[in-house]
């Protein structure tokens, strides 16, 4: 574990950031937490900034990354995944990976930027991918390779078709399937896949894609070599824009009714009704727009879980 974490030692707790540790180690015991502390001490990580060590009972999926991004975490997250042979299990591909996730990396440290991952039902990959790539958090043509694991035959076919339809830069000979090298798939291999894609970015191979299947969902992520910028939800005033066209259809009859009533009243009463008309217009427009705005964001999140993310 020392060799695994040593390259990250100088980045852990850099600039005074607190950090948490999340670790999965196959067939580990209750002494794992003490071992992690010992290793962190050996690599001279700032132990005074360590907030917690979380022992995972099974190798997590990419949804863990999405959860962290949605939380807009302020601490660094050191994630360790180790899968080694035991006396009973010796046929799978041994692997060990470590990632340091930070939501405010410094450019001089040459970080790799991982955007929030698309998650899709396996039978809706093509539809969801259209929305995912249309967000253009990265220009689709800039994505050069895809590293994948655990995808079924039909899922691969749909995903590769989607990559072509959305004009990514992934050619047929740039599709790397981990099982072709490792043989028997395991739950931990998705983290090896992510590590390979990150190294491709780090060593000048351009922006990359990573994909893996977990249960009934397909996860697709984009890794960028340069800061892609923030993708926040539209500000509240955008609700008015969303609402104007739809609410005008509702308001026109209301205006006509108010004007008709005003014509039947005195001039003083007319002023009151005009004022009420203005207030009603603004209120109905904003409320309707806010509802449409919320619906659009929720629908986008359901479709691809990425479009209005911070990352």
Structure commentary:
With 311 residues, this protein is α/β, with parallel strands linked by helices. It folds into 3 domains: 1-106, Thiolase/Chalcone synthase (Peroxisomal Thiolase, Chain A, domain 1, 3-Layer(aba) Sandwich), CATH 3.40.47; 112-229, 3-Layer(aba) Sandwich (Peroxisomal Thiolase, Chain A, domain 1); 238-304. Helices cover 41% and strands 19% of the residues. It is built from 9 helices and 10 strands. Strands 5, 6, 7, 8, 9 and 10 form a 6-stranded mixed beta sheet that branches. Residues 233-237 and 303-311 have low confidence and may be disordered.
Question: What characteristics describe this protein?
Answer:
single chain, 311 residues, alpha/beta, Peroxisomal Thiolase, Chain A, domain 1, 3 domains, 6-stranded mixed β-sheet, 4-stranded mixed β-sheet, 10 strands, elongated
């Amino acid at each position: 574990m020392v060799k695994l974490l040593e390259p990250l030692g100088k980045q852990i707790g850099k600039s005074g950031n607190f950090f948490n540790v999340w670790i999965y180690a196959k067939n580990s015991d209750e002494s794992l937490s003490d071992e992690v502390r010992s290793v962190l001490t050996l690599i001279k990580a700032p132990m005074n900034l360590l907030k917690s060590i979380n022992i995972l009972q099974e190798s997590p999926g990419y949804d863990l990354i999405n959860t962290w991004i949605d939380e807009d975490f302020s601490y660094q997250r050191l994630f360790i995944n180790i899968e080694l042979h035991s006396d009973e299990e010796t046929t799978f591909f041994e692997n060990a990976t470590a990632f340091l996730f930070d939501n405010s990396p410094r450019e001089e440290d040459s970080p790799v930027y991982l955007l929030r991952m698309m998650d899709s039902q396996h039978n809706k990959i093509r539809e969801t991918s259209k929305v995912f790539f249309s967000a253009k958090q990265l220009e689709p043509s800039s994505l050069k390779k895809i590293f994948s694991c655990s995808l079924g035959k039909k899922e691969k076919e749909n995903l590769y078709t989607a990559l072509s339809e959305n004009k990514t830069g992934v050619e047929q000979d740039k599709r790397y399937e981990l099982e072709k090298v490792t043989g028997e798939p395991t739950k931990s291999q998705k983290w090896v896949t992510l590590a390979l894609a990150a190294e491709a970015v780090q060593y000048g191979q351009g922006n990359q894609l990573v994909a893996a299947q977990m249960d009934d969902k397909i996860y697709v992520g984009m890794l960028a070599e340069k800061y892609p910028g923030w993708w926040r939800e539209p500000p509240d005033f955008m609700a008015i824009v969303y609402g104007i066209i739809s609410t005008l259809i509702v308001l026109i009859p209301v205006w006509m009714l108010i004007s008709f009533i005003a014509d039947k009243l005195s001039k003083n009463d007319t002023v009151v009704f005009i004022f009420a008309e203005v207030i009603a217009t603004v209120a109905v427009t904003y409320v309707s727009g806010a509802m449409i705005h919320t619906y659009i964001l929720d629908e986008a999140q359901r479709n691809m879980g990425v479009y209005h993310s911070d990352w």
